[in-house]
Amino acid sequence: MDKIKVIAIVGPTGSGKTKISIELSKKLDGEIISGDSMQVYRKMDIGTAKIKEDEKEGIPHYLLDIQEYSRPYNVCEFQKKCREAIETIHQKGKLPIICGGTGLYLKAALYDYTFQEEQKDEAYRQELETKTNEELYQLLKEIDPKSLDSIHVNNRKRVIRALEIAHSGKNKSAIEEAQNHEPIYDVLWIGLDIDREKLVEKIDERVDQMFEEGLEQEVVDLFSSPRTWEYTSFQGIGYKEFKPYFLKEASLESVKEKIKIHTRQYAKRQMTWFSRQVPVHWFASDQIEKIVEKVRCWLNA
């Protein structure tokens, strides 16, 4: 049985993925799935650079505004919902086009990734929470050293998750090794590249525009209460930088600068990840005709 054809448009934040996804959808009868882990949250519009209704140009979009911002969202949920959206679009006779997103989320949805549901052990979790990042790292080094190849010592959340998985049975690296890491769809990866200096300029302009559109008020409305600072939604770039501002330890201008720095760093990580992890065909964002030609050849192959 032939695999469903899916286009994934990737590249650094600010590279023009949204515009290309709309153009491809119009030319190739496609519908768009957001691959962004933050745009799923309702009311979080400005800080996530969520596409506006008039910008959609009538193209149906999936996985936007599907989750209350007070509820956590994870890669396992994204995998399920993204695959459901792909099937829905395919059944309509349309071409599924995934736009942007975190590399891990996209690969989990498009490849043969399976997730082990670890048993909840609150006592073990509480014990882990008392340890420093270094202590957690050393513990994971003893239990599942291979998993450390893809987890940084300071990524406390992922280290704890790997420890919980190992505690509940098979360890994280063993689960991953048992998988083939092969796509379950016929995926065409389209990557948008952009000159480094130009990208920095576009990122800075985008962040400035977010503040002009009311980012400060959006964050205040959603997250000014300390009880919200532990929400998964607050951990995204464009939101987490406001914590010292709420504590009156930083100015609004310094928050803006932090968002710019973190966005640039994220864009660099995105480029590195996609270049190493998946077979991307890279184009400049203004090469729409070349992109369409590439897609048409792939569709007819």
TrEMBL record:
<dbReference type="InterPro" id="IPR018022">
    <property type="entry name" value="IPT"/>
</dbReference>
<keyword id="KW-0808">Transferase</keyword>
<feature type="site" description="Interaction with substrate tRNA">
    <location>
        <position position="102"/>
    </location>
</feature>
<dbReference type="GO" id="GO:0006400">
    <property type="term" value="P:tRNA modification"/>
</dbReference>
<dbReference type="GO" id="GO:0052381">
    <property type="term" value="F:tRNA dimethylallyltransferase activity"/>
</dbReference>
<dbReference type="InterPro" id="IPR039657">
    <property type="entry name" value="Dimethylallyltransferase"/>
</dbReference>
<feature type="binding site">
    <location>
        <begin position="11"/>
        <end position="18"/>
    </location>
    <ligand>
        <name>ATP</name>
    </ligand>
</feature>
<feature type="site" description="Interaction with substrate tRNA">
    <location>
        <position position="125"/>
    </location>
</feature>
<keyword id="KW-0547">Nucleotide-binding</keyword>
<keyword id="KW-0067">ATP-binding</keyword>
<dbReference type="GO" id="GO:0005524">
    <property type="term" value="F:ATP binding"/>
</dbReference>
<feature type="binding site">
    <location>
        <begin position="13"/>
        <end position="18"/>
    </location>
    <ligand>
        <name>substrate</name>
    </ligand>
</feature>
<protein>
    <recommendedName>
        <fullName>tRNA dimethylallyltransferase</fullName>
        <ecNumber>2.5.1.75</ecNumber>
    </recommendedName>
</protein>
<comment type="similarity">
    <text>Belongs to the IPP transferase family.</text>
</comment>
<dbReference type="Pfam" id="PF01715">
    <property type="entry name" value="IPPT"/>
</dbReference>
<keyword id="KW-0819">tRNA processing</keyword>
<keyword id="KW-0460">Magnesium</keyword>
<dbReference type="InterPro" id="IPR027417">
    <property type="entry name" value="P-loop_NTPase"/>
</dbReference>
<comment type="subunit">
    <text>Monomer.</text>
</comment>
<feature type="region of interest" description="Interaction with substrate tRNA">
    <location>
        <begin position="36"/>
        <end position="39"/>
    </location>
</feature>
<comment type="function">
    <text>Catalyzes the transfer of a dimethylallyl group onto the adenine at position 37 in tRNAs that read codons beginning with uridine, leading to the formation of N6-(dimethylallyl)adenosine (i(6)A).</text>
</comment>
